[in-house]
Design a protein that fits this description.
Blueprint lengths: L1 H10 L2 H12 L6 H8 L3 H18 L2 E6 L2 E6 L4 H12 L3 E3 L1 H13 L2 E2 H8 L4 H9 L3 E6 L7 E5 L1 H6 L11 H7 L24 E3 L1
Antiparallel strand pairs: 1-2, 3-7, 4-6, 5-6
Helix pairs in contact: 2-4, 3-4, 6-8
Length: 211
């Protein structure tokens, strides 16, 4: 085992370690071109480094490197799927109950992303500062840069946690607005997408209940 560890250290040069760290912190796939541009190396060197990392992972690690959506992404090893699914079900995917205000705001972000806070408020006709802050705090939305307009307002997008909690493979898996209109509940949770007549700021103090 000690000899195996030494071999891994020799094979993992600086470039491989840099690529590995970048993939570890990235929430979405990163292309070879993007990595190469950032590190100042050729695309061929990046792809060689990725192959080296993949070989090391396949030999003795619980992780792997996948190519998806035009880029590389770190993931758990396929043979550990059952273990990870059970663990995620008991720890990561805790049941979360959303208030109507939070669900409406989350829906607006999901269907209009990237979207600014003022754009969300225009659609819902109500201030949503505290609701957005709550969604950020609990990892369902994230800041995705700034819009190139007056004041450079922040842009918001949904996160991987949002996809996990709602059982979605990706944003493209969201039902269409026409489907929502057909199957929405009587309380009109998604009516805000059409712009309800609301003018007061919402109280988000009891937004979340974790079970």
């Amino acid at each position: 085992m000690q000899q195996s560890d030494e071999n891994v250290k020799k094979e993992m040069g600086l470039l491989e370690r840099q690529v590995e760290a970048m993939l570890f912190v990235s929430p979405q796939p990163v292309s070879s071109q993007e990595i190469a541009s950032y590190l100042g190396v050729t695309t061929a060197r990046v792809e060689s480094a990725v192959r080296t990392i993949k070989e090391i992972y396949e030999a003795s690690h619980g992780l792997t490197i996948l190519f998806a959506a035009g880029g590389w992404q770190m993931a758990t090893a396929p043979d550990l799927a059952e273990t990870i699914e059970a663990f995620s079900g008991s720890v990561s995917l805790q049941k979360v109950r959303l208030s109507k205000a939070a669900l409406e705001t989350l829906a607006v972000i999901a269907y209009n992303q990237p979207v600014t806070r003022s754009e969300i408020e225009d659609i819902r006709s109500v201030r949503c500062d505290r609701v957005v802050d709550t969604l950020l705090k609990h990892g369902l939305v994230r800041i995705a840069g700034r819009k190139k307009s007056v004041g450079s307002p922040l842009l918001f997008r949904t996160t991987e946690r949002f996809l996990e909690i709602f059982g979605l493979a990706g944003i493209s898996s969201l039902p269409s607005l026409d489907e929502l209109k057909e199957y929405r509940s009587d309380d009109g949770v998604f009516d805000s997408l059409e712009g309800p007549d609301k003018v007061s700021e919402e109280d988000d103090s009891d937004e979340w209940i974790r079970q």
